[in-house]
């Protein structure tokens, strides 16, 4: 959220036709103008259209001309035809370089807050009905007056032999008025100044705990954060994300600046007999963990006498290796205790093979179970949640398109109806 987190390798989909728009500031006119003895005015925002297979090359050219990439936005096929620039899926330069370099999950941590449309809706998310969730708290704390919480604990989630650093971090919020519900996000403002000498901007992260917190005492909020790490495309130097590094190495007792909460797109239905499909990659597991705690954890159920989950939930979780299965013990204990109500399916890309003998990504698992998923999705009580790297959606849509077509249904049209009904929830970055 950020919002943000996903699995390695959405890059196994067709990408040659994907087009991105770089928003760049500070460009010099050309290398030739640098030789003049009078000042040349640098640009304000410039928008450069770049095909996927030239992204790194264009990034290097921009750096040579002294420019700074403010954001990278993907154009959908329809937007390309219409000549419009989408404000969806704002991605930092660092995240893009990281994703292309090693296919790993993008952490929720390093993306700037998604742009809003004129009605204030987050444009990477399916739009919920205006009247829904009117009582859900939002923006209790804003960037100009954040809440100062304290780190209580910081625990590693990646086991020995895994890839990268992912931490479960719990903060004390008992001294303030921060309230939230499952599926929302909070902002974190890292300490210090950016390279321009200005205070660091907030990053949004999906909340990984229920409204009552991990201790079920209404005094904490928890995050699942992966440290961003990538190679600089020009120098080859290893670069680490500012906010994700701050959080991954924060110590108990240290202060943290918190804003929010924000978001109403990923909220659970109030119906305890609902059916919930969850598709997550990497740290996209954060909101799913909150849902599962609310549904199944004994202490949490005791704290919610009016909500006793009796429905069915299915988590399809994409990760690169077994040691990267975040919250593995919790997930498998729930599966063992509630076999009739919870189904757990892994897609472990570097260890499992798909039907074609290639790596097993989340979209391959969805294709494998497409007929079952389609049957569930058609039920009126079913809600579907997707959280992770933006590229995962294409493979999921392809699998469900094939399943729906067997019944003469056009998936893209059916999906639009699901969104209008508030039953299709997406948070990708």
Describe the structure.
By secondary structure, the chain is α/β, with parallel strands linked by helices. Among the domains are: 12-104, 2-Layer Sandwich (Dna Ligase, domain 1); 275-428, 3-Layer(aba) Sandwich (Rossmann fold), CATH 3.40.50. 23% of the residues lie in helices and 24% in strands. It has 11 helices and 16 strands. It has helices spanning 55-64, 77-82, 93-102, 242-248, 285-296, 298-302, 328-337, 362-368, 370-377, 392-405, 411-420; strands spanning 19-25, 46-51, 68-75, 147-156, 166-172, 185-189, 203-206, 220-226, 229-231, 238-240, 255-262, 275-281, 312-319, 342-348, 382-388, 424-428. The strands form 4 sheets. It has a 6-stranded antiparallel sheet with strand order 7-6-11-4-5-8. A hairpin with a 6-residue loop joins strand 9 (229-231) and strand 10 (238-240). Helix 9 crosses helix 10 (392-405). The longest helix is centred in the last third of the chain and has 14 residues, at 392-405. The protein is globular.
List the helices and strands and how they pair.
Layout: E1 19-25, E2 46-51, H1 55-64, E3 68-75, H2 77-82, H3 93-102, E4 147-156, E5 166-172, E6 185-189, E7 203-206, E8 220-226, E9 229-231, E10 238-240, H4 242-248, E11 255-262, E12 275-281, H5 285-296, H6 298-302, E13 312-319, H7 328-337, E14 342-348, H8 362-368, H9 370-377, E15 382-388, H10 392-405, H11 411-420, E16 424-428
Parallel strand pairs: 12-13, 12-15, 13-14, 15-16
Antiparallel strand pairs: 1-2, 1-3, 4-5, 4-11, 5-8, 6-7, 6-11, 9-10
Helix pairs in contact: 8-10, 9-10
């Amino acid at each position: 959220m950020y919002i943000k987190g996903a699995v390695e390798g959405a890059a196994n989909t067709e990408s040659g036709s994907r087009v991105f728009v770089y928003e760049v500031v500070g460009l010099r006119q050309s290398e030739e103008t640098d030789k003049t003895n009078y000042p040349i005015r640098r640009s304000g925002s410039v928008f450069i259209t770049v095909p996927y297979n030239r992204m790194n090359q264009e990034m290097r050219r921009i750096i040579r001309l002294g420019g700074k990439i403010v954001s990278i936005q993907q154009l959908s096929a329809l937007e390309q035809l219409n000549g419009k620039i989408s404000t969806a899926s704002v991605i930092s330069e660092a995240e893009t370089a990281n994703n292309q370099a090693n296919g790993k999950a993008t952490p929720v941590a390093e993306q700037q807050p998604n742009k809003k449309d004129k009605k204030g809706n987050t444009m990477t998310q399916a739009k919920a009905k205006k009247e829904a969730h009117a009582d859900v708290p939002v923006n209790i704390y804003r960037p100009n007056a954040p809440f100062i919480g304290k780190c209580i604990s910081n625990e590693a989630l990646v086991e020995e032999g895994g890839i990268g650093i992912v931490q479960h971090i719990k903060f004390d919020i008992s001294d303030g008025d921060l309230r939230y519900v499952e599926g929302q996000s909070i902002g974190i403002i890292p300490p210090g100044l950016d390279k321009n000498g200005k205070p660091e901007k907030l990053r949004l992260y999906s909340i990984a705990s229920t409204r009552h917190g991990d201790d079920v005492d209404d005094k904490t909020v928890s995050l699942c954060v992966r440290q961003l790490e990538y190679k600089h495309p020009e120098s080859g130097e290893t670069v680490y994300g500012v906010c994700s590094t701050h959080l991954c190495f924060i110590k108990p007792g240290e202060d943290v600046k918190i804003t929010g909460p924000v978001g109403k797109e990923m909220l659970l239905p109030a119906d305890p007999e609902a059916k919930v499909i969850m598709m997550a990659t990497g740290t996209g597991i954060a909101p799913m963990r909150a849902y599962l705690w609310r549904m199944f954890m004994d202490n949490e159920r005791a704290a919610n006498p009016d909500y006793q989950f009796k429905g069915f939930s299915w988590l399809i979780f994409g990760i690169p290796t077994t040691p990267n299965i975040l919250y593995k013990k919790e997930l498998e204990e729930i599966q063992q205790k509630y076999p009739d109500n919870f189904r757990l399916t892994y897609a472990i890309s570097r260890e499992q093979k798909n039907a074609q003998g290639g790596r097993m990504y989340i979209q391959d698992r969805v294709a494998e179970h497409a007929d079952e998923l389609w049957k569930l999705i058609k039920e009126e009580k079913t809600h579907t949640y997707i959280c992770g790297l933006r590229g995962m959606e294409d493979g999921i849509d392809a699998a469900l398109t094939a399943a729906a077509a067997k019944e003469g249904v056009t998936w893209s049209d059916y999906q639009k109806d699901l969104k209008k009904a508030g039953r299709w929830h997406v948070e990708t970055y």
